[in-house]
Specification:
mainly alpha
């Protein structure tokens, strides 16, 4: 059952099949051991060291791939693409595609609150698994596995353009139009456990696009997207006058 986790050594071969790589059971079990499980049982090593390592392996593999695939892209665009591929949300999506939550070893409290479905736990465990592959099989095998997982996302990311980061894209556009740096007017509504955030973009010429989201970042990105579209259209019309 998702959220409960498997016992060490049980059926991790199925996860290896999904990953397309063989990993020594003891190494893979460590990668799947959340700190809540380790603390409850005492003496177990949590996956945080492997997560630290996997983060670095993922970064170098993705950076190298983007650098080689996009020979004309400036540093700023490469950085945006990399961020879109290695952030927690992207890693959690990878983990979900592998149904990784079925295998994560969680403490009782974390399991009871749906820990195996949490973005942060899925993302951290995905990085730990990458670190485990690197430790057990080396960089070549780890890089091949990461590329199999990430390449489809990479193709989508390379086509996104401004959508890679609406806030940064808006900041660059506003500067070109002489409207100053965007600021975001934020509001929050609802109880602490179920807040909805709203944001509106403030530029030198007044208020612009409004966005909503479950987090401040989501609301700001939505507001930036609408404002970018508005200003891009205005800029295009102005060029045609």
């Amino acid at each position: 059952m998702i959220g409960v986790g498997v016992q060490p050594g049980s059926n991790t071969s199925e996860l290896c099949d999904r990953l397309g790589v063989s990993i020594a059971p003891e190494v893979l079990n460590e990668a799947l051991t959340h700190r809540s499980y380790a603390y409850e049982r005492g003496g177990l090593r949590p996956n945080e060291r492997l997560e630290f390592l996997g983060d670095a392996v993922l970064s170098i593999v993705v950076t190298d791939a983007l650098f080689r695939r996009n020979p004309e892209a400036p540093e700023g665009r490469l950085a945006k693409m990399r961020s879109a591929l290695v952030n927690a949300k992207a890693l959690a999506c990878l983990a979900e595609s592998l149904q990784l939550g079925e295998f994560i070893l969680l403490g009782k409290g974390e399991s009871a609150t749906g820990g195996a479905a949490k973005t942060s736990i899925l993302a951290d465990t995905m990085e730990a698994v990458m670190g485990a592959v690197y430790i057990d099989q080396g960089l070549e095998v780890a890089a091949a596995m990461i590329r199999r997982l990430v390449d489809p996302m990479m193709e989508e990311t390379e086509a996104l353009g401004a959508a890679l980061d609406w806030k940064t894209s808006l900041q660059e556009l506003a500067a070109r139009l002489g409207l100053g740096a965007p600021e975001y007017v934020l509001r929050a509504e609802g109880p602490d456990h179920d807040k909805v955030f709203s944001a509106q973009v403030q530029l030198a010429d007044g208020l612009h696009g409004h966005g909503e989201g479950r987090t401040k970042k989501d609301a700001e990105q939505q507001a930036a997207r609408l404002t970018f579209s508005e200003l891009s259209g205005a800029g295009t019309s102005g060029d045609g006058d």
